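Q: Protein A?
A:
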Amino acid sequence: MTISSCEAEVMHGMIFSQPEDPLLRSVLSLLRVARDQGYTLDRTKIAKLLYLADLSAVENGGVAFSGATWRWENHGPFDPAQYRVEDALVASGIIERTQDPQSPCGEVRLRLVEDVDAPLEPASLTVLGGVVAEHGDRSAAQLRDLVYETAPMVQARSEGERGVLLDLNRARRRKQYAALKERYKARLADRAPAESDPGVGDDLLAEMAESAEARRRATAKALGEE
């Protein structure tokens, strides 16, 4: 039986230091962060949280770090390579895979059973931790609804074609536009209101009334009526 390079990497113990596969590092780190924060994840939530972490990194001027190639699949952003990583981690005994009997679709839950360090770099781990803290308590359905509202998914759906590659940079451009709009509104609010003289209208009306007779005569003369 042949095994993938990902499985070989795990089985040779490299997973406990710094695995080369970025998606494997990200999935393992997510499971560790989720366990530390008291959350149990299923396959769908793993995909959605990793996508949101990549999106957060890009929005804030960084780069996507999960190693996933995000496409619009049946339930939102997904990379089938996640199955390969999941199988490798299960085969190594690092995670446990069970099927949720309460789920109508038989959702697959994944749980870290080995005490391993999260192999992501600190900056990426900070982003991932923030996303889990903010969204870890959401259900898979709630996360699905959330990711469908993100700029890359909105664009993909407008094109109406599943399987299309998601452009995460759209999220950065949307955030930049929103920031520019807010700065413009702030500048308008800071401008001093135009000064006005409450009595200028009355003075103008009085002046026009005083000159009305002179203007009438000038008009009549011009028309040859005088």
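Q: Protein B?
A:
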Amino acid sequence: MMMNLFFRYRTQIAGYVKQFTYGPASIDLLTVKGAGHLVPSDRPGPALQMFENFLRGQDYSKELPFSFQLHPLKEDYQIQETVTSERTGMPVPGTVSTRKLKLKSRRMSKNKSTAPRERLASAPLNPPPIGTKQDDLVTDLPGLTWTPNFKHYSGYLAASPGNYLHYWLTESQGSPKDDPLILWLNGGPGCSSLGGLFEELGPFHINSDGTTLFENVFSWNKVGNVLFMEAPRDVGFSYRASNVSDSNYNDDYTASDNVLALASFFAKFPEYKNRPFFITGESYGGVYVPTLTSALIKKIQVGAQNGANQQYFSTSSRY
């Protein structure tokens, strides 16, 4: 059975929905008006509303219940301006200073030496320590212009022998103890999921100066705990130890590494075990997401995946 619908964002038609059902199974195919390949970046409001209602099983037109008020800027990034009288040139008593974002300038030297980078690239890569949850807690993020109201973690997860996948977890701004776990995978193949974090659905976005971060009020961690994982192996900060000669890359290897990395994640963050779990992605994530889903289901069915309680999967801009 198929149904054609549309959904609204505020007062406008935001997109269209096709719902396919077969027995107890259902698939919703949504098109967001005006969005290109990067839906959360092109149409952040409708994308967040769409995903929030997908998570809750609600009408896609249901309005978002969140506040979109920006957090105050840190003092280091504020410029205070005193209002003065045109007649006297003196400060006006009781006026409130205006505050603006102060961006740092970025200067690049054309003759900058590349020697340090060459030495780093040729150095042997030893396995990084698989730290504890507390080890991975981010307490100071350079260039962050505001103080987050949530915790976030960054570190490594063990995949196949000698392969380590980098992750960044942004806890929910709502109820991190109750909200679902959402895995996000960018596509490519070979695109870092930090692109999703810093340019699309993450709470931190990069300013035009390239050195500071501003708040994304349409961040998906308003609806859940979002795990950004850099896959396949060697993508972004993920890497293969220098003593490992296996350099094969295919979708099955990627799914297998992701399953192992998720097991490593649940060992590090046991509070997410058996939590509602959503696998999401975009572009070539349209391959990563279903292949990982299939591999996880097989593990769950034989009791070999301790922690994952997968309920749904979703892809954005499949092609």
